[in-house]
Write a structure and sequence with these properties.
The chain has 361 residues and is of the alpha/beta class. Helices cover 32% and strands 12% of the residues. The chain contains 13 helices and twelve strands.
């Protein structure tokens, strides 16, 4: 905001409880020279058609931006994201917060600890009981120290999480196509595991795999059936990796002890406004967070700063480092995969699959 306010009059979408709608985005485009958007925002052709004089769009997401690039080319609108050199999960140096991977890992650990100590249930119990039983047996749990954590996938978030698990002396199982080197396994107290073995042994199953055709609904009724009744399931990755109906059934039937969910099946790009099944909202042993893993001020600032600096470059007639479409200036297409994806709007529920390039969780 400081960068933008030094160079422009800035209007901010005022709602904090829902996505900006398509109509609101179109209205904003009509009265603006530039738009700055988060990763969950869409820029279909209708937005750019509403203002052919739009001078630029800055948007999080790298090459996964939800922008109709054909429309941008037609109107010669530059699309700016973070410079590719910063990578898709840019921020502070590895192992140091704040960056998105580190912040998401810390949220994941928070979910695990809150489930282990039944923190939210304890909070509700204390609020609802004017006179409560001290040291009640109603809220007993297994704690966290020394338990077994199973990591499905081990990318950036998983590596950050492992660093934060060290003080708890957990046994850490991991399932990954390519096994790590022996010294890496030793550093993080890691044990390479088969898929079913990990599900059977883990006290916490944490989903960290990419979402793609091979991982779509990779966790379903069979997989929940392999878990212990005391196992907690945590998903900070992507909602469609899990069969949500099977998860609900496993929780209702007490096949697993509880869940911490940061992502959900019905999120963009399947639908415009994310929504969570009522059944999940009604369970005391489920913790729900709104896909908010990077929601710490330094991390969000690190994400947006290079984008708004790119907008500043456009305003001051400089070429932004994060320009996605130099073809608007008659140059070669930099990212041909951004073209030919079809209409850039959410599919109707039950409609076509994700049109976007597949990205790491």
């Amino acid at each position: 905001m400081q960068v933008l306010c030094e160079i422009a009059d800035v209007e901010v979408f005022p709602r904090l409880d829902r996505q900006i709608s398509l109509d609101e985005t179109i209205d904003a485009a009509r009265r603006s020279d530039y738009l700055v958007a988060l990763h969950g925002n869409y820029m279909p052709a209708a937005v750019m058609d509403a203002n052919p004089d739009l001078k630029g769009i800055g948007i999080m997401g790298g090459t996964t931006v939800k922008v109709d690039m054909e429309a941008a080319l037609r109107h010669r609108i530059p699309i700016v994201t973070a410079p590719p050199a910063l990578g898709p999960r840019y921020g502070a140096a590895p192992g140091k917060t704040p960056n998105v991977g580190g912040a998401t890992a810390e949220l994941t650990l928070s979910l695990m600890l809150a489930l282990a100590y039944r923190l939210f249930e304890s909070d509700r119990y204390t609020r609802e009981n004017a006179s409560f039983q001290e040291q009640t047996m109603a809220l007993m749990g297994h704690g966290f120290y020394g338990l077994t954590v199973g990591l499905l996938g081990l990318g950036r978030v998983g590596t950050h999480l492992l660093r934060r698990l060290q003080g708890f002396e957990t046994t850490n199982l991991y399932y990954k196509r390519t096994r790590l080197a022996a010294d890496e396994e030793q550093q993080f107290n890691l044990e390479w595991s088969g898929f079913d073995d990990l599900l059977t042994r883990s006290d916490f199953v944490v989903v960290l795999v990419d979402y793609n055709d091979t991982t779509h609904e990779m966790i379903g009724a069979r997989e929940f059936g392999l878990m212990k009744p005391s196992t907690y399931f945590v998903n900070p990755a992507r909602g469609r990796i899990v069969d949500e109906d099977a998860l609900i059934a496993a929780l209702q039937n007490k096949q697993i002890a509880g869940a911490g969910l940061e992502v959900f099946y019905h999120e963009p790009p399947l639908v415009w406004d994310p929504w969570v099944p009522d059944a999940l909202k009604q369970m005391d042993n489920v913790i729900l967070t709104p896909h908010n893993g990077g929601a710490v001020y330094p991390s969000r600032a690190n994400q947006l700063k290079p984008i708004v600096e790119g907008i500043r470059d456009l305003i001051q007639d400089r070429r932004p480092a994060g320009l996605l479409n130099p073809e608007i200036y008659g140059e070669s297409v930099l990212y041909p995969e951004l073209y030919g994806r079809g209409t850039v709007v959410p599919a109707r529920e039950g409609g076509p699959a994700n049109f976007l390039p597949l990205v790491e969780a």
